[in-house]
Amino acid sequence: MITLVKKCKKLKKIGLKFSSSLSGAWLKHLRCPLQSLSLEMYEMNPDYLLQGISKVHSTLKELSFICCPAIRCSDIGTIAEMVPNLTYLTLAGMFSLIRLNALLPITKLKNLIRLDLEQNSVVCDNFMENLVENCSSLMHLNLSGTDHSYNLTEKGLTLVARLTNLTHLRIACHDGLNDNILKTLSNKLKNLKHLDLTGCQKITDEGCIEIINNCTQLESLNVSRCNITNTTMLAAIELAENGCKRKIHIIAGGTRVDPDELIIKPEIRPYINIDIQTIISQLDEFYDSDNDNSDLSLDDYDIYDDEAGYYDFFGMFFCLLSLTSSKLEKKIIITIIVTSFDFITVIWKESINFGQICQMS
């Protein structure tokens, strides 16, 4: 990597994933005009990282760290000071950040357009107050899975409504999200195009209907595993029948939506697409496959969804399925996924909290 970085003098983007064999010494040799740096599940010496960022601070616009435990709480503040003009920032799955105000320095990045904080337990109400005050240009925001220690309450989630430039919002798997918050968001986020509420089980038809009716630019709504019924779908259908010509894609897998009871007239079908496909139907495709994939490896898979901007943990299971040639082995993996999703989520959250306690003691 050192040779590569030194010889490729016009590198604008670097991304490395799943490496534990490198010390990260190459990071010291970063040079302009580097604009984007992405590290995923990457072991390194954080001091090398800071040295490298200091050399490209004038051109660097995008930073992404996904499950990089070497990064310390103090490093976040240093990076924010060195690169004040960042526009894209991802700090997903950063369980090494245990100090409550560790993320506060990034609220000084006033040019941020996209921010991904998925699975960060230190996102709190105080952080959100500073974020909405200073980062009003945000268009993409991911707060999924940020309720580990219940630091981000209804107060903090409601503040998202002040980010009126948002077009993409993801608050999946957050126990604190409810219909009252959705009502507030629907009245303020008029530019919203994509909303993901997957696994927020306090969300009902009441909140979803407010979003559908008030967010007139909405193109996709993911309410999989939310507590909704056909009532939400009927609201979207009625809107289309009344002349609303926007195209909207609603994903409602794992809900009480019954497509057999929905009547969508041919003339409005181009404008509304209701997808109730669940994880089971996707897994059946793997189970029914007799392909021999023994020549593949986990390195052939990217379980981070770059387009959506979040970590696809189900992708890890799909990797295992694709690498398995035996139908029996596939059936075992499918059973684990379908029956244990909620259990795994709870265990994962509790293990994170336990790890934080151990680090603080």
From TrEMBL:
One GO cellular component, as annotated: SCF ubiquitin ligase complex
Domain F-box/LRR-repeat protein 15-like leucin rich repeat: 112-233
Gene Ontology biological-process entries: SCF-dependent proteasomal ubiquitin-dependent protein catabolic process
PANTHER family (UniProt xref): F-BOX PROTEIN YLR352W, PARTNER OF PAIRED, ISOFORM B-RELATED
The protein's name in its UniProt record: F-box/LRR-repeat protein 15-like leucin rich repeat domain-containing protein
Organism annotation: Rhodnius prolixus (Triatomid bug)
